[in-house]
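Reminder to self: tokens first, then the designed residues, so the page reads top to bottom the way the pipeline ran.
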């Protein structure tokens, strides 16, 4: 399936001396750009496209970096691979580790990740380490683990960034190499923003494109250290002590890749913003009604665009690509609770 991979078809732009048989792949990538209909109307945009990375093998963009990271892990002879995660990385790591025949250890913030994602990690045979506290505590615990046999596959692993940058290449192909005006993505640990920056920079450097889309990063208001950094213009990021948001995937207070992400945002003339949990919920519902669906963290993109539209900051003719990072079924608990609440409100109305 190596030749079917939407990542490895760009291997001229990827590291590694690997032979085709060495690649650890599940035919990731090749995800569509979907035109936004109701969502486009709600933002006044004729050309709103969703790049749906949730339509990857484990339902999330993490697979794009896991195929490259796991291939490298196997190449260097790793026996155990590990990550800290808000859920999606652990699901992806578990799946690709199984393919590679490696043992997977995943460090998760106890009680704070979607059960769907936990179920995936279990299904794919990972060893689960539950950590009290947030993702940040889980990552600290993992990094302090004294075990030389562990190969770390967190998003700071440069091989993961390499796979994730191919999103930009694929997006440009799908747009027939017409550079969009804006690429907007959620910001958690900021690995994706860093990867997109690298992809854009390389395309420009190699002469494939002559201008750059604005890279806009959206955080949840309760987990917004990068948005705060942008707003204040501070030199150093101040971590959010107790990050809190319904979008558990991005409930992160101390994003590790903020310098690279900041470089990308500045290089492209973009910016960083934040949206509330309520705005995320409304945007997510609209994406659902477009027949597309996504998990809460992904909906920060449309929530951000709706906010920009309300402020008159979106040009109707602009071409905008919103990155949807995770599948709707990644957090069914959130959906069912949101609809139960909506039903209660409707009943209350009917009953006066
Ligand atoms: N969207 C989803 C669905 C995610 O799972 C994540 C991160 C992000 C957005 C943010 O991406 O960290 O590159 O800025 N999830 C990680 C995990 C932290 O462990 O699954 P980022």
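Designed residues (352 positions):
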């Amino acid at each position: 399936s190596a030749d079917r991979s939407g990542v490895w078809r760009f291997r001229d732009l990827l590291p590694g001396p690997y032979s085709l048989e060495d690649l650890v792949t599940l035919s990731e990538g090749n995800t569509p750009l979907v035109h936004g209909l109701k969502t486009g109307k709600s933002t006044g945009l004729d050309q709103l496209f969703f790049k749906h990375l949730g339509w990857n093998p484990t339902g999330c963009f993490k697979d794009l970096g896991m195929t490259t990271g796991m291939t490298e892990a196997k190449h260097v002879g790793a026996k155990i691979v590990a990550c800290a995660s808000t859920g999606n990385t652990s699901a992806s790591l578990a799946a690709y580790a199984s393919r590679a025949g490696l043992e997977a250890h995943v460090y998760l913030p106890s009680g704070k990740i979607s059960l769907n994602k936990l179920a995936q990690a279990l299904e794919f045979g990972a060893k689960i380490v539950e950590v009290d506290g947030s993702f940040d505590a889980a990552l600290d615990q993992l990094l302090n683990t004294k075990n030389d046999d562990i190969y770390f596959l967190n998003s700071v692993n440069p091989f993961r960034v390499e796979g994730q940058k191919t999103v930009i290449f694929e997006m440009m192909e799908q747009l027939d190499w017409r550079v969009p005006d804006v690429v907007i993505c959620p910001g958690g640990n900021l690995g994706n923003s860093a990867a997109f920056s690298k992809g854009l920079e390389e395309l420009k450097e190699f002469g494939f494109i002559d201008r750059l889309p604005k890279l806009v990063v959206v955080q949840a208001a309760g987990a917004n250290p990068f948005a705060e950094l942008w707003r204040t213009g501070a030199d150093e990021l101040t971590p959010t002590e107790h990050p809190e948001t319904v979008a558990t995937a991005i409930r992160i207070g101390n994003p590790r890749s903020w310098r690279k992400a900041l470089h990308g945002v500045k290089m492209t003339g973009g910016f960083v913003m934040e949206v509330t949990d309520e705005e995320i919920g409304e945007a997510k519902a609209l994406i659902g009604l477009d027949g597309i669906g996504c998990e809460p963290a992904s909906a920060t993109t449309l929530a951000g665009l709706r906010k920009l539209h309300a402020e008159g900051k979106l040009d109707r003719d602009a071409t905008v690509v919103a990155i949807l990072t995770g599948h709707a079924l990644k957090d069914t608990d959130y959906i069912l609770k949101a609809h139960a609440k909506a039903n209660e409100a409707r009943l209350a109305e009917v009953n006066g």
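Strands lie at 33-35, 47-52, 80-84, 103-109, 127-131, 150-152, 182-186, 214-220, 271-275, 319-324.
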